[in-house]
Amino acid sequence: xxxxxxxxxxxxxxxxxxxxxxxxxxxxxxxxxxxxxxxxxxxxxxxxxxxxxxxxxxxxxxxxxxxxxxxxxxxxxxxxxxxxxxxxxxxxxxxxxxxxxxxxxxxxxxxxxxxxxxxxxxxxxxxxxxxxxxxxxxxxxxxxxxxxxxxxxxxxxxxxxxxxxxxxxxxxxxxxxxxxxxxxxxxxxxxxxxxxxxxxxxxxxxxxxxxxxxxxxxxxxxxxxxxxxxxxxxxxxxxxxxxxxxxxxxxxxxxxxxxxxxxxxxxxxxxxxxxxxxxxxxxxxxxxxxxxxxxxxxxxxxxxxxxxxxxxxxxxxxxxxxxxxxxxxxxxxxxxxxxxxxxxxxxxxxxxxxxxxxxxxxxxxxxxxxxxxxxxxxxxxxxxxxxxxxxxxxxxxxxxxxxxxxxxxxxxxxxxxxxxxxxxxxxxxxxxxxxxxxxxxxxxxxxxxxxxxxxxxxxxxxxxxxxxxxxxxxxxxxxxxxxxxxxxxxxxxxxxxxxxxxxxxxxxxxxxxxxxxxxxxxxxxxxxxxxxxxxxxxxxxxxxxxxxxxxxxxxxxxxxxxxxxxxxxxxxxxxxxxxxxxxxxxxxxxxxxxxxxxxxxxxxxxxxxxxxxxxxxxxxxxxxxxxxxxxxxxxxxxxxxxxxxxxxxxxxxxxxxxxxxxxxxxxxxxxxxxxxxxxxxxxxxxxxxxxxxxxxxxxxxxxxxxxxxxxxxxxx
Length: 716
Description:
The chain is an alpha/beta fold. It folds into four domains: 8-103, Methane Monooxygenase Hydroxylase, Chain G, domain 1, CATH 1.20.58; 150-306, Polyphosphate kinase middle domain (polyphosphate kinase like, 2-Layer Sandwich), CATH 3.30.1840; 328-506, Endonuclease Chain A (Endonuclease, Chain A); 510-689, Endonuclease, Chain A. It is built from 20 helices and 27 strands. The chain is globular.
């Protein structure tokens, strides 16, 4: 048989949806990489358990949002195809198949970890017997803490089927009443306020799940009945919130939408144990399953709940504790952040450098009598937010404070409504942004009276103002007093608060106005360099890459000879390394101790990378259509030589050089771990053990500089 013509194959691929990977299946591949870390022998045991728990939490959210949306399209007979040409029905079928495969891997991982935990002195029991004292304690705990809270309900025509909340766990008991041998079915729904796992007191750590504890003491719950069997189930419901175009009051709309979400359609029914067929049929009919996924397992349901066991006080089974450093340059100015930034722009690398400096920036602004105004975007601020406290303090001190609170931050809507109320009561001007667009840009703006005029200090971030995630997400904070960026920040806030679209900006690119075009212009410039025979390269780092037009632009650049390396942690719909089509594009994913979250773009600009001429940007936006077209995002150029080199030649390059935590996207769409060829490099360890980017860092001797990373051709 003659060899197929490669050129015609390339043309066919260029015009075909086959040039893309399905978004949902790519996400499932990402979660499979997360799940693989649960089997990583280089990690401490409880950290491996944490990865297993995270894979469960990730999968729950994916099912409740993405799969729920596709199921809704199927119900409404919407035939809009995905980026790779699949109908909603085809996608749901493929997703269900992959989810069942992942669930089987999760259960296998749990059995292996459970055995290893037992060997390490952390036991998770089911119906195993304990010593007399422990059995007595469990019984007393059940009678005093569990039994008063739970409510068994008979399932018969006289008792309506109870509502099962989203992520709710319940137990169906098959009983026989001893007085008349009548069969009875009883349901016990487990209140979510109860702990997922209960620890038995003692030096040895013994845990039991709440459902096993209830089943263990069923005789106390059902006196006068004989227990014939039981089955545990868990429900996931549609949890997405769609914004109606005619929503007149966003606050009122979200308050009611949050309530509706708790009663969404069932998307997944998980069954554990030997379910009585009649009981299973009852659940299926009463829960109104329609194209829902039913997962049966002999293992543990609600894998995400294992996070409770990860908190066991066993330091030797966890990562070595790490304390973020405080930026040295701020300390050199006696903690005066304004003085440090006034002297020179500064980039801070979280979590290696503490997020506390961002909080202190706002605290100092609140206390400084020369500060007249603060403007702040809030996407996810967390439940215990020092940022909120600082803004309230500033307002109470008489300063003009404006907060843009995004109500559409998924699963944080309720918390953001609470923060908005507190801010308004303190006198903060609270703005909810646009109805159709999320405000996802991360920016703080402080206006300070200095001399005869005013100076604007800005903080631009790649991550949220969330003190908890800032300890585990890698992000960049950029502090500057550049007047051009200050004026642009003012234009951004006027756009959000008053719909005053800026006719021009001096340095910032804002989506959905001009961020996409800025990226395209930079890509086209690299294509022009390649066509002239000059060095041409694009380095980029992001969480997801799904926008078809941006992907096609990268394909075009690669085919023109531009060398492209992408670090895409999660979803990637681009296909890399395909001969004759995308062989100049390499994609890697870094999965490790910290969650890679910073977003960076770098363009060689006619010289070998990395170089001082390169155009470097940090951004709040991923390579997704929603970020480029339906969200307010920022692309911030790194013009200052110091921060330019730090972002490009340290943060970006370290991610490219990483081998210990990296996966490479193969032409067939699968991911393979980077082969360790005897010279391993771990970018997380590198930044943990070397000085901070913004100064010397407390962990090393005074005056020592950040080691210079070198790029050798062929090592990425």
